[in-house]
Automatic annotation (TrEMBL):
GO terms for molecular function: oxidoreductase activity, acting on the CH-OH group of donors, NAD or NADP as acceptor. This is NAD-dependent epimerase/dehydratase family protein. Transmembrane segments: none annotated. It comes from Propioniciclava tarda. Keywords: Oxidoreductase. It comes from the Bacteria. Residues 19-261 form the NAD-dependent epimerase/dehydratase domain. Pfam families: Epimerase.
Length: 361
């Protein structure tokens, strides 16, 4: 059962006030909602359309099986004041709502505006709601760096919470740019007042099973490409900072309720890469999945990258470089005990197989 739950050991979770979770139907948010419901908390779940039964059914089912209570609220990121009703009476707001995709037609409209304006809307509502004492922002390690080479260039060759992404833009890694701008906006608003505290959690690539039926996170796209034969002639060795979704959920709850939680927290259980992920999956899923066995040479990836929409700058600055992340703060301050990488991968792959995600190309 431990693999189906979130470890909240060492966290005193009060149940006398509701907690608002924005973007509650999302991949990470689903596990945050489950952890809170299992702890007996009343969760105010803000979603686009509470009447869309298929999209909220998993939340309702979790609430039915838990001591906590679920209340659904309609809210849109780009509508000022949309979260006011859902926030009423809450001492804690957990803001997870943000787009997570790289394939967009207009980065400003589809990524930056929803991330920045949505964050501003939620935090301005927090400032206008007397009950709010703490806001937990789901940021991303994307707000810290764009490319693995930046880890090698960082002090001591390791990424930590003191760093900010200065290389992403609307034309290069716009998703990373949107997360950076959104977190900077959050700190600007938080620093302008002194009633509520902001805590930011910055996960790496999130792995593990989803509670929602149709997750859209890019990590599922990467897993699908590893197993559906896309890389059958050779994989791309891409450095990745990986973390289990259940560990991310624990970090959110800890950031919400531990008295000393403050500032930013990088969440990375494992400095890995796509070929290492394939290797760890092979013992259990080697026959079921078309996992890559060999990494393509960097010069070849650089040459053909533009044909498969991979910028050569990205190839140059990532493949062949070492990515290291310091997770000391999350372990020591939030009590995150990171799950083994194989467990996250196996749980994720098994669920995707059950759902028919790996259709051979």
């Amino acid at each position: 059962m431990a693999r189906l739950s979130v470890d909240l050991s060492g966290i005193d979770v009060p149940t006398d006030a509701p907690v608002l979770v924005t973007g509650a139907t999302g991949y990470v948010a689903g596990w945050v909602v489950k952890a809170l419901l299992d702890a007996g908390v009343t969760v105010h779940a803000a979603v686009r359309d509470p009447d869309a039964s298929a999209r909220v059914a998993h939340l309702v089912a979790m609430a039915d099986a838990a001591p906590g209570e679920l209340k659904l609220f309609a809210a849109d990121l780009l509508t000022p004041g949309a979260y006011t009703e859902a926030m009423r009476g809450c001492r804690v707001v957990i803001h997870t709502a943000s787009p997570f995709t790289r394939a967009v037609a207009d980065p400003q409209r589809d990524l930056v505006d929803p991330a920045v304006l949505g964050t501003r809307s939620v935090l301005e509502s927090a400032s206008a709601t007397p009950s709010v004492e703490r806001v937990v922002l789901t940021s991303s390690i994307a707000a810290v760096y764009s490319d693995a080479i930046e880890s090698e260039q960082a002090p001591h060759g390791v990424l930590d919470e003191s760093l900010w992404n200065t290389t992403a833009s609307l034309t290069y890694e716009p998703y990373l740019y949107s997360k950076t701008l959104a977190e900077r906006e959050a700190w600007r608003i938080a620093d302008a007042q002194d009633r509520w505290r902001l805590v930011a959690v910055n996960p790496g690539m999130v792995l593990g099973p989803a509670l929602n039926p149709d997750p859209t996170s890019d990590s599922f796209t990467i897993m699908k490409m590893l197993g559906d034969g896309t890389m059958r002639f050779g994989g791309v060795r891409l450095p990745l900072p990986a973390v289990d979704v259940r560990d991310v959920a624990r970090a959110h709850v800890a950031a919400a309720f531990l008295p000393d939680a403050s500032g930013r927290y990088l969440l990375c259980g494992h400095d890995t890469d796509t070929m290492e992920m394939a290797r760890l999956l092979r013992p259990r899923f080697g026959r079921a999945l078309a996992l890559p066995r060999f990494a393509l040479p960097k010069p070849l990836v650089w040459a053909v990258g533009p044909l498969v929409t991979i910028q050569r700058r990205y190839v140059t600055r990532n493949i062949g470089h070492v990515l290291l992340v310091d997770n000391t703060r999350s372990r020591e301050s939030l009590g995150v005990n990171y799950r083994p990488l194989w467990e996250s991968l196996e749980d994720m792959a098994a669920q995707m197989i059950d759902r028919g995600a790996f259709k051979r190309r």
